[in-house]
Amino acid sequence: MKRVSEFSDKAKKDYELVKQAQKGSQAAFTELMNRYHDAIFYMIYKMINDKSDAEDLTIEAFGKAFRKIEQYSPDFAFSTWLFRIASNNCIDFLRKKKSRQINIDTSHSEAEGQLGSTIYDESTISIKSPSLDPEETLIKEQKNIQLRNLVDSLKPRYKRLVELRYFKEYSYEEISQELNIPIGTVKAQLFRARELLYGIVKKRKGRL
Q: What is the pLDDT of residues 72-107, one digit of tens each?
C-alpha cells in the first residue's frame, strides 16, 4: 500500500485531479480522460481486436470509473484503479459476447447423442433464427422509442452527438468532420452525454 508522497509526479497530478473530480469538476473529469484515453483504448483493442467496440468500451470504462470516483482511495495510483475497471469491463463484454454465440458443433453432437450415431434428424437441432420474432421486434421498437425520448431531453449539442454516434453509427472521425470539432472534444462530450442519460434513467428508475 502506497502513500501519496510515494507516488510519481504523474500519479500525484492524477490524485489532485481526482480530488477535484470527486467535488464534481467536469474539467477534471475531462483532463483525466484525455490523459488516459489512448492507453485504455489500446489495452482494450488488444483484448478484443475490434476498433469500434474498443472505442465504445473505452468510453464505458471511463463512465464506470467516474460514477465510482468517490470510492477511489490513494492506496494505489489512480491509473492502476482505472486500468482494473477497464480490464474487468472488457472481460465482461467478451463473456457476454461469447454467451451469445451459437456453437453449432455442440448442437450437432447433442443431436447425435440423442438419436444414435447412425440416425440424424435436423429437426432436433435448435438454432435460433437471426431475425427477431414479432414479440422481440415489438420490445425492441418500444425500447428504441424510450431511448429516443431520453435523447430528445438532452441539450442540442449532446443530442446531436448521440444521434450521429448511436443512431447513424458515425465513427469518431466522421463526427469530428461533421461538427467541425476535435476528436478529443467529440469523445469527451459523448462521455458527458452518456453520463447525462444515465442520470435521467436513474431518476426515472426505468430501463432502456
A: 888 888 999 999 999 998 998 888 877 765 443 444
pLDDT tens-digit readout, 22-50: 888 878 888 888 888 889 999 999 988 88
Indicate the pLDDT class of residue 59, thresholds 50, 70 and 90: confident
Structural domains in the chain, CATH included, are 1-101 (1.10.1740.10), 102-129 (no CATH), 132-208 (1.10.10.10)
CB-count exposure of residue 180 (10 Å: 0-12, 13-18, 19+): exposed
Distances (CA, A) of 183 to 34, 157, 188: 11, 15, 9
Read off the amino acid at residue 203: K
Write the single-letter amino acid at 52. Answer: S
Name the nearest CA neighbour of 50 among 7, 2, 93.
Answer: 93
- How far apart CA 18 and CA 85 sit, in angstroms, is 15
Task: Tell me which residue has cell 465482461.
Answer: 92
Quote the pTM value. Answer: 0.56
